[in-house]
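Per reviewer request, we include the raw input and output of the structure prediction for the construct analysed in the revised manuscript.
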Amino acid sequence: MLPFIYLLVIALSSGCIGYAERVELFWDIGTLNISRDGYSTWKSICVNNAVPIPPVHVTQGDVLVLNVRNSLDTPTAVHAHGIYHNYTDYYDGAEMVTECGIPPGENFTYIIDTTDQVGNFWLHSHVQSQLTDGFRTPFIIHEKVKPVTYDEEKLLYFEDWDLRSFDDQMNIYSTLNAKKIPIAYRMLLVNGMNGNVTQPVVFEPGKRYRVRVVSLLTAFWLKFRMPGHTMHIIDQDGVACNPVEVDGLDMGPGQRFSILVTAHDTTEFNYKYNVTLYANFVNPLPGIIPRYYNGPIEYHQNAPLKHIPDVEDNQLSWSNTLDLQARDGMPLLPVDRQIVLSIKQFTPELNIPVYTFGDYAYNHTLVPTLFTALSMGNLAFNSSIYGPQTQAHVLHYGESIEVLVYSDNLNDHSLHMHMGEYQVVEVGPYGDAVANNRPAVAFQRSGSAPMRSDVVTIRSFSYIKLRFRVNHGAIIFFHCHMIHNFKGLAVTFIAAPDLLQKHMKVPNEVIRMCKLQNIKTSGNAAGNAGFDLTGLPQPLLVNHG
């Protein structure tokens, strides 16, 4: 393996228009036997033989060149979570959706243009359990000019960490009846390591801080507070908002915030931030779930800790996307078409639960969906060529789409959309939450400039309305960002396939990755002509009755 991360920053001029920088990283992806939580030791995915994977920082307009060497024994791929891409979907990192992945022993380069985005994002694998096993790190795109006034920045990122690898869990689950599966209570990692022994957040008196808070969680939720300090949200998921004061952040898998915090004027006391790791799919167990973590906010190394009385969660104000207003004032989109999705759960007798958005559980096809859209001419507008397991919906350029999602199962879900963001428009109750021992979700609608995000939590027994406009050709993967992603809970939006065919040219290196794995790069979902899906594995038809 490469002994360390090489970083090249090369200034590239572009006539009289200005300057951009080419930020080049070399990542050798492997495994390292290590204890990250202070309790268990197993093989964590690492970069350049080190964990945690260092956060990546660039400035708006930079081009990130990520050279990846796959030293794992399975394929891998890197998804830049929250990044739009502009007719470069083949760098989105969604295996068998927009690319074929990187086979073991091979190298591949991702090129990510940051011209149109700023904020908090992250890089992670989009291949099976690799995200859960440690392949994740923040990706921060800094503004050239600060959007608000502050003195310094701090970064806090959180991961949920199990006592064993995901594959080991699956081996256990596959031999047990689903009703007898042992619950995996996870630990919290803060900035890569044990959440109870993390380094302090150092504040200087009187300074104003932008604190970037990033959830790299995969199954659990968290609540984050800084008692004794006032927090104002200024952005979510890379979208700036009008400042809103909150007592804490309630964050699902994949969500990111920036908050403004002003330090106290003296070094008389130190403080603590609080993190609660929780999930509604497991029953509370004192000392086990929820898990509570505290981290130091240090004003002076020798200062005493300020005692602040505890306050019940229901007495505090928590982050809520519907309470935020987009700073750019983009108005509520009209609705040209509504797509209705219903989250359902199916539990095979001797397996873990399968979740779906419809009749079929999502699964990969034999040809990446992007290549089907590019190679099938006018048939690319017919959803059936993508295979029933993709749950494909074909969208037309200029359409305003409303996605209405219903959920009447016991679990919360974290819904992520690739290649853009949606307006979060409305939530409300659906089904009988109280009878199922779940809190009822109140009706709420957005303001005149709805906040946009790429991840949102849908609570159990509720519905949510999301809107976005099709403004370019793209393959938009919409899925739960929990492990339910590769257990069926995903659909594919085929946006303006005619524009994809007109504007996109797939690099030869992308095609080479597919050929090395004997994966076809043209034809329908089965790699055939027309509507002939012969050879396509039979999709799982879920009986919701």
